[in-house]
## 1
Amino acid sequence: MPTIVVEVMPKAELLDPAGKAVAGALGRLGKSEFSAVRIGKRFELTLDGEVSEAILAEARDLAADMLSNSVIEDVVRVYVLESATSGASA
Amino acid sequence: MKIGVVTFPGSLDDRDAQRAVRRAGGEAVALWHGDHDLQGVDAIVLPGGFSYGDYLRCGAIAARSPIMSEIIAAANAGMPVLGICNGFQILVEAHLLPGGLIRNDHGDFVCRDQRLRVENASTAWTSQFDVGQEITIPLKNAEGGFIVDAETLKQIEGEGLVAFRYLDVNPNGSLDDIAGLTNARGNVVGLMPHPEHASEPGFGPDTPDAMRSGTDGLAFFTSVLESALTRV
């Protein structure tokens, strides 16, 4: 079944306490080559039918209206997942 | 005077808010998130809790509940609406108040009796206070950091839309120590701290007089009762 992926990230200028906590843990593990971590979200919207331009437009609207809050987040990408085994690949 | 308190899946403080309404002299009406019926109430409280487990974003799913279409219309028509904690998050997600609430800057849940300064005493929910009055009510959240873009912040400050500011400490990294906001009309107010938990002697914050005797939150509810009388 076709899947549309929506990627959302906290705005760059915002403090991301969750990402900061992970970055702190990396530092404690000695992984000093990674200077920062930011954590976002990935949504996978599965369709019963085929992907059309209208469906993609609807997904973009949904991404902007509900899946993200433009005050604190940016929609980074909305795209159709090519593989049918979404999320299964290592 | 009927004040509706909406229960969402995951609301925690709906019963406490109902009790505060009754202690203030109002009639509390339980409203259900899945209904399209405000049951003729004169004002509405969106209570604290963790609606939908804070999934997606705090308040985001609740803000799109069936009853919210009626609440948004009523708020835009002037009905008093108070959002407490998760209710404040629902109000910003419903675009009834500006900005957003994000994880506390220190990353931890915080629970404390919080001193606040009343910045706007001409809203439906704050008219029984004086501007500059200092009150203490409980604060308990992990995602109470108020943020907004610089231009909107300037507008909020310039138009006197800050309702409450944190005193002593900024417990969550909120911009300009903002604890609560009002809309320009003064009928919609949201804040992270919990007035309903400071409305009954024996169950409120400690005061210099006695343990747990603080009832500074009661004035939110007596304010709206009075404002409804003057509105009619």
## 2
Amino acid sequence: MPQLLHPSFLRLGRRSAAILLLLGALGLLVSGLARPADASDPYVAGSDATRVARLSDAVAVAAVDRAAAHGRVLGLPAAAKRIVDRVVDRRGHRTFDEVTDLDGRGRPVAVLRYALDGRLLAATRLGWQPGTGRALPAAADAVRAADRLARSLGIVPVGPPVADSHGTNGWSVRWQRMVDGVSILGDGLRVQLWPDGSFHGLASAEHPLAARPATTISSAAAQTAVGELLDRWVPGDHRGDVRIVSSSMAWVAPNDTFEPARPDAPAEIRRLAWVVSVRFSGIPAQSLRALEVSIDAGDGSLLGGDVLR
Amino acid sequence: MLDASRRRRRWRPWIPPLLGILAVLIGVAGPAGAGPVAAAYQATADSNETAFEPPCIGWDDPHPERMLTLATAGLKALGYDARAYKGAAFTRGHVLNRTVGDWSYYVHSHGDYYWHAGDQRRYTGFREDSGDCVQSVVFSKDIKDRRVGRQTNLVVISTCSGGDANTTMPGAFGIAKIKAGELQWAGPKFYVGYVGEQFDNDEEAFEVTFWDALKRGKGVGPAFELAMLEDFTHQFQADWWGSYVWSGRAGPGGTCPNCV
């Protein structure tokens, strides 16, 4: 490095300066610093899912204050220091500020994520903390505890809750977001509790919705469309092992499950669809258990779906 | 002749700084956030693709290939010498041959708690690809017999039932089903599996964040926690065993940063 301070280095000719500029630009390209810092470039699997930039104390102060207040409400360990990163989630089409609480020895103890408008998007207490209190005996107790936690943060759960026991990992209580009685898949509020009801994690999501179609096709029409797809997709000798079991209307993220040429990331804007559930049996079920096929509720086109191996 | 020699002299002072800049650029081009490792720690990533494309089924499902890409990139970022296998290259024989040298293993396939006729009992397992539509099961017992206690680092079983309470897969890789929390240390090892039946979109959402958090240096436990915060479309469950505070980086070392 001292060679960089050689007097002759400081007397740059035009050609030498140009070479240095070129090398510098190459360096920026290689290190990725020249990449755009927004989510406008499409995510491709294998590339970085997030772009992360550390925020200065001055910029981070609002997020730090929010995290301190929420940490007290949630009973998180006292943080000796907080660091804040701005995270561009390229696959999830969102940007958030991620606050990491550090203890006195610099160890991370909690993570809280905020939308740029200050809404709490997610929080998790790090570590294996199954708690020492009496385990919540039933789902109703888990719902009450999760509801209390959410309200203490100023979040009012909406709709019917569903509580799942996760054994020693505690409980997961979920409120599905709905519009006019129709679920928005992936949206809503989810609270993770340790077995004794103490706070483990929280995540909320609310995606934009496309305009509701003026008219919608019937469930039977959607099932007929899926039946025709199955006729094409399932080899004839196994077609009898594959049956449609139900269909329900939901807002879904269009994706590439059945059309790989589409983008790797699911679309940000949810569309109204008939989600047709298909179950496999016999030999085909040795590799494929079920499908969910999403049919546009307006025009009957294929929006995507999901696979259960 | 004189001119040429003068030209050489004029360039000479530039050579060391230019070499320095070149060295810096080469350094920057290395794996971001992971850093190189001195030894090669073999890792295998397998994905069952053939069962989910023609002629086995009538469309080309992109999940198996994409999740293989994610896993391979994630493992490489952690310093593993990771190789990806699919199609005819991902057979039961291949898994059992490679596992002897694997420090880390990833698989995405159909999985279950399969009946083993020979032993008259069930083991956790998954289907090979084999490049055709008839696919054998790789039982945890097969892997365990080949590894005979060999040390493992990171194992991600991206199948149904790999994270069930009764799963036999962690033991095949020498990972006891214990959760060593922030003040404990079970060695540089971590096992992740899904509980019950899980859809691919949820598994992929989990894995994108899991690998990304590991690349960001969060460590295996926090990476698992952050992955669990994704927007799942079904009731999603995953589980883990091993050392929560481990970095995930390849090799026999690693320490418990919280234990001292």
